[in-house]
Design a protein that fits this description.
This protein is α+β, with helices and mostly antiparallel strands. Helix content is about 55%, strand content about 15%.
């Protein structure tokens, strides 16, 4: 029975679902309506999938870059304010006593040129063997050679891309040059020294793998004329979220004037640009879903026009305006729900295998999609954030339901007398 004991129809009764789902299976005479519904479904599916994939890749970029940058550079940096940092061991001891601090490393850091038959710019860092073995970006990422005996060997550890560019392997010689050398009657002469390559590491970030050269701290102090001093103390935290709290504790613990900066200040412009790009991409790709939702509107309007006779018959049999509204609401919403679910599955599948998809496209197109030289990372990262997925799914479902309201309202307002007058 369509009518309840109160003279109306029970909301979302079985017959409403049966009629709505039957309208989704358009007959040959209604083929154009079916085509529009199909394109609406595909548009929503592709929109949701693309949003999930793009948001996941952007999240992956943020996480990978943050891990690489912080993994090699630390969270907080201390530099001497008024006198050379000759008491770096004391600073390391004071900061290391703070419970939130995981690792404290004193180092010499200075730009230089690295050369063999070729020449490249390098950032030379002098660190102790015990410290380089604990650096998050270096530990476990040595591809050739070893860090054992790093201090005694007097050799260098270099990034893999720098080794490739200079044609170096473990045991080969590399020359380090700086402009400020010895003072002579003819001016300042460049200083250079040849070192054996002890280890080659791969951080996974192309820019860093092509930049860093690590020397033993005593050797770096002698080469850069920084006897018994360090240029910076890098601090790694157990939890980067506690950055502001730890900064206050470091101020209280260190007994000498220091210049303190952190990774947010050093990389603010870079990560702000990444967040802006992420938000802009979300807005642009949301338009795909919006266009698909508008296709649902046009398809339902045409369906209402085509089903005018059926609506009039249902009304004369006792169906209320509310029942007619719900029938077309279910019809339109079903397209949105099905498209959202299909896009959800497709998006998760692609986002979870985005690097494999990139490799396949590289082979098919005979091109290098996502070159490491331009995008800093050696692989295409992807991190699926459940909050982003939930936002995309909820937004798409809401747009799909809102898109059905107007056509459903028009169907409910249809006058059965007018619809049947010329039958």
């Amino acid at each position: 029975m369509m009518a309840s004991s109160s003279g109306g129809t029970r909301p979302f009764a079985l017959f409403e679902w049966m009629i709505a789902l039957r309208y989704l299976r358009a007959r040959r005479s209604e083929g154009f309506v079916s085509v529009i519904a199909g394109f609406s479904f595909l548009g929503i599916t592709l929109g949701v999938a693309t949003l999930i994939v793009v948001m996941s890749v952007m999240n992956g970029f943020h996480k990978e870059l943050l891990d690489k940058i912080v993994g090699i550079n630390g969270h907080i940096f201390l530099q001497a304010a008024d006198s050379p940092l000759t008491d770096y061991d004391e600073v390391v001891r004071e900061v290391g006593a703070i419970p939130e601090v995981q690792l404290t490393i004193p180092m010499i850091e200075a730009p230089a040129a690295a050369s063999t038959t070729n020449m490249a710019f390098a950032l030379v860092r002098g660190v102790r063997e015990a410290d380089i073995k604990r650096l998050p970006g270096i530990a476990g990422n040595v591809k050739q050679g070893t860090l054992e005996g790093f201090d005694a060997a007097g050799g260098v550890a270099i990034g893999q891309r720098l080794a490739e560019n200079l044609g170096l392997r473990v045991g080969d010689k590399i020359k380090i040059l700086i402009a400020n050398g010895a003072q002579t009657p003819f001016g300042v002469t460049p200083r250079s020294k040849v070192y054996p390559v002890s280890a080659i590491f791969q951080i996974g970030m192309a820019e860093f793998d092509n930049l860093f050269v690590y020397l033993p701290l005593p050797e770096a102090q002698a080469f850069f004329s920084k006897d018994s001093e360090a240029s910076v103390v890098e601090i790694f935290l157990r939890n980067p979220e506690e950055l502001d709290v730890v900064r206050g504790k470091i101020d209280a613990a260190v007994m000498r004037p220091m210049i303190m900066t952190d990774w947010r200040e050093r990389n603010k412009t870079f990560f702000d640009a990444l967040n802006v790009e992420r938000n802009v991409m979300f807005i642009i790709l949301t338009l795909i879903v919006l266009v698909a939702a508008l296709n649902v509107v046009s398809g339902l309007i045409m369906l209402v026009k085509d089903k005018g006779h059926d609506i009039a018959v249902l009304r004369t049999m006792g169906a209320t305006r509310g029942a007619i509204l719900r029938i077309f609401l279910i019809t339109g919403a079903s397209i949105g729900v099905a498209g959202t679910f299909a896009g959800f599955l497709l998006g998760l599948l692609v986002a979870s295998n985005v690097e494999a998809v990139r490799q396949i496209l590289n082979r098919l197109l005979h091109a290098n999609i996502f070159p490491a030289e331009l995008y800093f990372l050696s692989r295409l990262p992807s991190v699926v954030d459940p909050r982003d997925v939930l936002t995309v799914v909820a937004m798409t479902l809401a747009l799909s339901v809102l898109a059905t309201i107007y056509p459903s309202w028009r169907a409910a307002k249809l006058d059965p007398v007018e619809a049947l007058r010329y039958e």
